[in-house]
Amino acid sequence: MDTQQRADVFINVHKGLRRGLLSLALHIGQLDWTDGGEVITLGAEFATMLHFLREHAANEDEIQFPLLEERSPGSTRREKVAHKLLEAELDQLEAEWGKVVEDPDREGPGYEFYLAFNRFLSGYLAHMDREERAITWDFYKLFSDDEIKTGFQKIIARTPPQDMAMMLGYMIPAMNSSERLTFLSNLRQAATPEVFGKVKTLAQEVLPTKDWDNLLAKLG
Hints:
about 0% strand; globular; mainly alpha
C-alpha cells in the first residue's frame, strides 16, 4: 500500500504521538524522583500527552470512524473496543501518577509508574500499527482523497485552537521534510491566511534552524 501517493489518514498524527510517547518514556526512565522540580515538570509533560491521546481518540471516534462505518458497517468495531480499553489504561496511569505525587518517598511508586507507562506504550504502538495498516486501507478503498481531506477539515473544526497548536507542536518536528512540505502546502490552500500564518510561526518555533530554513525555501 503506497500511502505516500494518497491523502494522509494517520501518518502525521501518529508520528507526533510516537514522538511524544517515546520521549516521555525516556524522560520517566531518566528521572531523579528525589527532585521535586523534575517531578513537577514530568507531571506537566504527562498531562499534556494524556490530553493529546484523548483528543486524537475523540477525533477518530467522532469523525473518522463514523465516516467509515457509513460505508463499511462494523469495520471499526475492533478499534472502538480498543479505545475503551486504552481509555481505562489512561485512567489507571493517572491513578498511578497520583500515588507518585502523594508518596514522600517517590522512588518505589515512580518505578511502578515507569513500568505501567511502558506496558501502556507497547500496547498503544501495536494499536497505531493496526490503524495504519487495516483502517487506512479501508479508507483508501472507500474514499477519495478529497473526501479524506474533508474529514480532516471536520477534525480541525472541532478542535480548539490551543489543542491544535499543542498537537502540531508534536507532529511537525516528527514529520520528514517532504511530509512537512506537503502538510504546509495543503494547509495554505485550505486554511485562512491567519491560520496558515500561525501554523507557519509554530513550525519555525519547534523546528531546528536547518529544517526550518529548508522548509521555508521550498514553501516560497
